[in-house]
Design a protein that fits this description.
- The chain is α+β, with helices and mostly antiparallel strands.
- The chain folds into four domains: 207 residues, Multidrug efflux transporter AcrB transmembrane domain (Multidrug efflux transporter AcrB transmembrane fold, Up-down Bundle); 136 residues, 2-Layer Sandwich (Alpha-Beta Plaits); 209 residues, Multidrug efflux transporter AcrB transmembrane domain (Multidrug efflux transporter AcrB transmembrane fold), CATH 1.20.1640.10; 149 residues, no CATH class.
- Helices cover 66% and strands 8% of the residues.
- Strands 1, 2, 5, 6 and 7 form a five-stranded antiparallel sheet that branches. A four-stranded antiparallel sheet has the order 9-10-8-11, sandwiched between helices. A two-stranded antiparallel ribbon has the order 3-4.
- Helix 1 crosses helix 11.
- The radius of gyration is 33 Å and the shape is elongated.
- The two termini are 36 Å apart.
């Protein structure tokens, strides 16, 4: 069959090339339409209850991830010139298109009791026309005398925060980059003008910068992979035409991968951005094995056409199954419920199969038009260094079997101890270097304002107008108790809720006495505040305050929210904090009459990380099962199946052990290593075993002689391929994302170990499992 296919490819080479170029041009058109994702890909299934809670929250109260925060730390803010510059800075922020609100020191208000109208009038603390240091000092004392702003706009007397609320629709579009860039530009201008360092954080900034870096790194890694592959191919084959042909295969594959991404309706995310580079890394070995077989066959028969037919017939089935198993290693992600993994798995799996058909058509067709390979191009087949190395391996296989077993056992024991040390924990920004400004700025807010990661607590009274009348006083009092409990946690800031607004108003009602910054318990006081909340005004300050306070209740006054900013505590610590809050909530609110729900981006991140890790673990199991079935179909032998899986399971165990010893946590970005390495490393096993089965009849089924011949025949291409794969993944070590960096060096280590286990342990196992001669 494969020989017939080889003849057909050579016979219809022109038509196949034309068809391939036309289809690739079409895929290139689709690839040009691929867009960058400006939102975190959904890691949680849509039917997950916590995801439903989050959607319900957003439906009632809006997005919790559309606030960008700007912080400064200085003792001179209230020097007149600095303060004016700060006021101008906040004014410029308000002028940026798609910025909805700016809440900062200069826009802070106080509530003034009007004895005539018996209302509380919101008045700006710092007038726009302030011109004297004396007046500024008076206003400063008023500002610091209002507990409402403590930890909200200032921390102590030297750290200050400005909250910038951005239109949430614009955050899910390319406009987002322009908005964030404008905010950064205005902040830099203030910093240059005053010499005060400005810190920026919040999900809009983190998401935008990470998305832009993904796009930038995608281009760099793709170019780096191509250049490095080109260099290695040129060194191997000493032929510019062979190098360009191999690069054409992977470039076609990259175009197809991006076209497939578009046709699947997906966008470029942190994971799907890796696919083009992975296609380069996987496509180059296809070229090496095909061309290596072509050169070997040509040296044996001297006939170019026959050599091309032999290349297709002998390596076609091998490469097909290698690509199938690699595709399985990635495609199993599509079986998970995580959208981010499902997208990556589908695109990677389909793209890997596409690269097989591209190489199957393009390589023999183009090679048939080129000249016969010369002595310089085939010189690599007699590389003395690799030949010497393979002879050493052969010596170990036949003469040191016990040593091979002992070393393997010792390494496994070492690895299992490391696995015991392995931890599973993830942070929202832990893929960034500790020196990155996004990371250091986030730490600034954690040190001074206890963080900026949003957590939302929703209190449902289970009846309409449950937050009105006398019953509301009980609810507000319990909310305040919960608020005090949360504020006492070292990782969490004081929650912002309707109760804080009531306390703010109650203080004003009692002539600004800060001792009365408490939830009103008197019916008259409560009614007074209630009337204030219902008041309407054309004043911008009043409408903003009213909007801020009423945004913490839904329109039916049935549900109230408490918004908490917290540290990026990680997936290990966060569940403990949430459990303690839920327990305290249940103590305060009778579950028969109230429902307290914890939601927000922090919750979805935790749930998403859990789903991804579980999904990846399940994927590895599925990959092993499906790959085992493929191996069983290919070799029709349980003995060979067992021999093939062990050398690929051991590298994964060793990698997990190394992670434990090196302190690399198990998280979504690092668990990916195992499936990627398994899908690629199994290729080495298949190529070795297929050659072993093909050579066995030529040596009268003598296992020992066949194993020795297989080491010599396939060792060269296996080593070359391993070098290309390792070099391709090493490129990822230059990533600014910790997960991508880990993917680079951990996968390289896994592939290096897999190469050794397949060249040393696999032959030893084949010899041990060989039938006893009678």
């Amino acid at each position: 069959m494969w020989q017939r296919l080889g003849n057909l490819v050579i016979k219809y080479r022109l038509a196949l090339l034309v068809l391939l170029f036309i289809s690739t041009g079409l895929m290139g058109y689709f690839a040009s339409k691929v867009k960058l994702s400006y939102e975190f890909a959904k890691a949680i299934p849509e039917d997950n209850q916590k995801y439903k809670d989050y959607l319900a929250f957003k439906d009632k109260f809006g997005d919790d991830g559309n606030v960008l925060v700007i912080g400064i730390k200085t003792d001179s803010l209230f020097d007149l010139n600095i303060f004016k510059a700060y006021a101008d800075f906040q004014h410029q922020l308000k002028q940026i298109k798609n910025v909805q609100d700016v809440l900062g020191v200069t826009s802070a208000i106080e509530l003034v009791k009007d004895s005539v109208t018996e209302k509380l009038d919101p008045v700006k603390i710092f007038p726009d026309d302030i011109n004297t240091q004396h007046q500024l000092d008076i206003d400063k004392s008023i500002f610091f005398g209002l507990p409402f702003y403590n930890s909200l706009l200032h921390s102590g007397d030297s750290s200050y925060l400005t909250a910038v609320r951005i239109n949430r629709d614009s955050l899910n579009s390319p406009v987002r980059s322009k908005i964030v860039a404008d905010i950064i530009a205005v902040s830099d201008s203030f910093q240059n003008k005053t010499g005060i360092e400005v810190h920026l954080s919040g999900l809009p900034l983190i998401r935008t910068v990470m998305a832009e870096r993904i796009q930038k790194e995608m281009k760099i890694f793709l170019l780096g992979s191509l250049l490095l592959s080109a260099l290695i191919l040129l060194l191997f084959f000493r032929s510019l035409s062979t190098m360009l042909l191999s690069l054409s295969v992977v470039i076609f594959g990259v175009i197809w991968s991006l076209g497939i991404l578009y046709l699947c309706g997906f966008k470029i995310t942190l994971l799907t951005a890796l696919v083009p580079s992975l296609i380069v890394v996987i496509g180059i070995p296809n070229c090496i094995y095909f061309i290596n077989k072509y050169h070997t066959s040509y040296l044996q028969c001297g006939d170019k056409k026959q050599s091309l037919v032999d290349m297709v017939s002998k390596m076609g089935v091998v490469t097909l199954f290698c690509n199938i198993t690699a595709a399985i290693g990635f495609a199993v992600f599509a079986l998970t419920k995580s959208a981010v993994l499902r997208e990556f798995g589908m695109v990677a799996g389909i793209s890997i199969m596409a690269i097989f058909f591209i190489s199957f058509i393009l390589l023999p067709s183009v090679l048939s038009y080129l000249r016969e390979p010369n002595a310089i191009q085939t010189k690599y087949l007699n590389n003395k260094w690799i030949t010497t190395f393979l002879l050493e391996i052969e010596e170990w296989v036949f003469s040191h079997k016990k040593t091979v077993y002992a070393v393997t056992l010792a390494v496994l024991v070492f690895s299992f101890i490391g696995i015991y040390k392995l931890k599973s924990v993830g942070y929202i920004v832990d893929d960034l270097p500790k020196t990155d400004k996004i990371y250091t700025d986030l730490k600034f807010f954690e040190q001074n304002f206890k963080g900026v990661m949003p957590l939302e607590i929703v209190i449902d009274t289970k009846r309409r107008n449950g937050l009105s009348g006398m019953r509301a006083l009980t609810v507000f009092s319990r909310m305040d108790s919960l608020s005090q409990y949360i504020a006492a946690q070292k990782e969490m800031n004081r929650p912002l809720s309707i109760t804080e607004g009531l306390k703010f108003a109650n203080q004003a009602f009692h002539d600004g006495d800060s001792n009365n910054y408490v939830v009103p318990t008197d019916a008259f006081d409560a009614a007074f505040v209630g009337e204030y909340l219902k008041s309407k005004s054309d004043s911008n300050s009043k409408s903003n305050l009213t909007k801020m306070l009423t945004s913490f209740m839904d329109s039916s006054r049935e549900t109230a929210r408490m918004s908490v900013n917290m540290m990026d505590v990680g997936t290990e610590r966060l569940p403990l904090i949430l459990d303690s809050i839920q327990q305290r909530s249940n103590e305060l609110f009778d579950t028969a009459h109230y429902k307290v729900t914890l939601t927000g981006t922090s919750i979805t991140f935790l749930e998403g990380s859990s789903f991804i890790i579980k999904g990846l673990k399940q994927s590895i199991c599925w990959a092993f099962l499906l790959i085992a079935l493929c191996m069983l179909y290919l070799f029709r032998s349980f003995r060979i199946l067992l021999c093939s899986l062990i050398p690929n399971l051991i590298p994964l165990i060793i990698t997990a052990g190394i992670m434990g010893w090196a302190g690399v946590a198990l998280k979504p970005s690092t668990v990916l290593v195992f499936s990627v390495a398994l899908g690629i490393a199994i290729d080495i096993t298949i190529r070795f075993l297929v050659n072993y089965r093909q050579e066995l009849p030529h040596y009268n089924n003598d296992v020992k002689e066949t194993v020795g011949a297989t080491i010599k025949n396939t060792g060269l291409s296996i080593i070359y391929t391993a070098l290309v794969l390792i070099a391709g993944f090493i490129i990822f070590c230059f990533s600014s994302f910790g997960g991508t960096f880990a993917l680079g060096w951990l996968t390289s280590v896994t592939l290096l170990v897999a190469t050794m286990t397949n060249l040393v342990l696999l032959p030893v196992l084949l010899l041990a499992a060989a039938p006893t001669k009678k």
